[in-house]
Amino acid sequence: MTDQFAVVGSPISHSKSPLIHQACFELLAKDASYNAHDVTDLAAFLSENVSLRGLSVTMPLKTQAYQIAKDHDVTGIRTQNCNTLFRTQSGWSGFNTDVFGLQQAAGSHAAGTVSILGTGASARSALVAFESSRTAIWGRNPAKSSDLATEFGVENVALERALSADLVVSTLPGAVLEDLVPVDKVFSGTLLDISYVNADSSNLEFAGGRIPGIEMLIWQALMQQRIFAGNEPQQPLEHESKMLEVTRAALNMAK
Q1: In this predicted model, what pLDDT tens digit does every residue of 48-78 receive, in sequence order?
Q2: Residue 29, by phi and psi: left (phi above 0), alpha (psi -120 to 50) or beta?
């Protein structure tokens, strides 16, 4: 019987998750399907789709996923949100693989100062991902930014200072960041913009370059594959290097 998986969120038409996970399932010769669904009420969707085995969860449903899950991994508890649900005999188990994805995508760039732009679920994941660095936060909503700074013990700074960090992690949607800063200014650090929509057309310049947001998506999906296989999040699968290779190939072919 085919195991059914999906990615849910709204909007969802831009999602590359089906390409990534289907490529992994084919490599692993797993009898599984993976589809995308535009969803705003996760509980209602799950009640109507009882055959689903697992879910990738994107905005704006990560907090809903956390509330629905009967149990959570440590990272999900720390961030108070889940981007992965996996069905067990006792109900849905919730996981956060975004932290792993951010860390893997950033690599050694997170060794110095890090600034997080945004105040949503992904910003919470970034705050946990880079807690070992000197971290600051900026948000369009000053109250939310201040609350997160207090909760996670980081600085709440002005945008100009945030953009001067060694690594700038933008969790802002779409091209919001470009609307906030002058396009003729070059910033000294490296930008990791988790929004991979229209990334190639960005005019923002960072001396350290840009880490493609799709890298974060690929790495967090790799950990989701571990979970979908019934493994613990930190328990690697066989042939993970090959999985990374085939997912990047699938994404390149889809351009």
Answers
A1: 999 999 999 999 999 999 999 999 999 999 9
A2: left
Shared-domain flag, residues 62 and 149: no
What is the pTM (predicted TM-score) of this model? 0.95
Axis-axis angle for helices 98-106, 213-228 (nearest 10):
130
For residue 115, with 0-12 CB atoms within 10 Å meaning exposed, 13-18 middle and 19 or more buried, which class applies?
buried
- Determine how many CB atoms are found less than 10 A away from the CB of residue 203: 10
Known catalytic residues? 62
* 218, 248 Cβ separation under 8 angstroms: yes
pLDDT in tens, 235-252: 999 999 999 999 999 998
Residue 222 host element (H or E): helix 213-228
**What gap in Å lies between CA 53 and CA 197, rounded to an integer?**
28
Cβ contact 38:16 at 8 Å: no
> CB neighbours of 245 closer than 8 A, spacing ≥ 6?
none
Q: What is the mean pLDDT of the chain?
A: 94
Q: What is the CATH number of the domain that holds 135?
A: 3.40.50.720
Both 68 and 25 in a single domain?
Answer: yes
